């Protein structure tokens, strides 16, 4: 046995640091995930699998939607938007001038106007809650384990990049184009950026077909790609299963929108 006091004694190496179970991807901060989702979405979703977060991405999406909504109403004129919406509705021909004037007064009242301005907050909250529930249901049907908070993370982070990019483009076009050069009612619902096949048809003449073609949208497919990637990474499922979930939900959404367009007589 060697003598520890001798010059030949070599101390044992220090023990390895404890494994926290967190990979480099899982160690991403919230700020890194918000920017990284645009450039390295795979790494971001791997991070969200370990630490699912959704509130920051939801807030960013809401801010951009609120910004466009507010600027649109200021640029176009809230009363003008309401007036054109009433005049272009299928029920306009059955309304007397007095009824139209009463409807305009009602929809331009301070309470209703505040609801219009705050609608992005309500819409985003509802869509996130329902969308995450659908992802959770889809993963269960596929026999995968996905927590609701993970489903929220996938939905919000896959929806944020298309919303941010499209709203930025909409805001730019809002100041480059005069309100006289576009359909104000359609723009209030779908925005000014036309990255879909709805351009090929008159949506007023064929609202159902116009709704269907407008669903074939570049930004929508960008979101579907991110959602499938997110479900694959966070839910640890195959690409086929992930795409099956997101495409099924998208198809159901298109059918519902087309049904509403057929009932209301206006493109959705």
How is the biggest beta sheet arranged? none
Whole-number tally of structural domains: 1
Determine the strand fraction and express it as a percent band. Answer: under 5%
Specify the structural class: mainly alpha
Task: Please give a structural write-up.
With 268 residues, the protein is mainly α. The chain contains eleven helices and no strands. The longest helix is centred in the middle third of the chain and has 32 residues, at 110-141.
List the helices and strands and how they pair.
Elements: H1 30-39, H2 41-50, H3 55-76, H4 78-87, H5 97-107, H6 110-141, H7 148-176, H8 184-190, H9 207-215, H10 218-234, H11 239-264
Helix pairs in contact: 1-2, 2-10, 3-6, 3-7, 4-5, 6-7, 6-11, 7-10, 9-11, 10-11
Q: Keywords, please?
A:
mainly alpha
A few lines on this structure:
This protein has 268 residues and is mostly helical.
């Amino acid at each position: 046995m060697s003598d520890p006091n001798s010059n030949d004694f070599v101390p044992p190496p220090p023990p390895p640091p404890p494994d926290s179970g967190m990979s480099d991807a899982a160690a991403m901060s919230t700020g890194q995930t918000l920017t990284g989702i645009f450039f390295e979405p795979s790494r971001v979703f791997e991070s969200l699998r370990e630490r699912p977060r959704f509130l920051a991405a939801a807030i960013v999406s809401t801010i951009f939607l609120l910004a466009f909504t507010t600027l649109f109403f200021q640029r176009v004129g809230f009363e003008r938007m309401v007036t054109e919406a009433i005049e272009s509705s299928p029920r306009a021909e059955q309304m007397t001038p007095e009824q139209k004037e009463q409807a305009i007064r009602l929809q331009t009242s301070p309470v209703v106007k505040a609801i219009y301005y705050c609608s992005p907050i309500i819409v985003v909250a509802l869509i996130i809650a329902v969308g995450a529930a659908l992802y959770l249901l889809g993963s269960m049907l596929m026999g995968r384990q996905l927590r609701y908070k993970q489903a929220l993370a996938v939905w919000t982070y896959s929806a944020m990049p298309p919303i941010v990019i499209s709203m930025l483009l909409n805001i730019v076009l809002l100041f480059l184009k005069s309100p006289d050069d576009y359909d104000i009612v359609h723009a209030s619902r779908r925005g000014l950026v036309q990255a879909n096949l709805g351009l090929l048809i008159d949506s007023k003449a064929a609202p159902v077909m116009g709704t269907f073609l407008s669903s074939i949208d570049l930004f929508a497919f960008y979101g579907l790609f991110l959602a499938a990637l997110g479900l694959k990474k966070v839910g640890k499922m195959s690409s086929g299963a992930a795409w099956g979930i997101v495409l099924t939900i998208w198809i159901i959404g298109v059918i519902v929108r087309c049904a509403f367009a057929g009932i209301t007589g206006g493109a959705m």
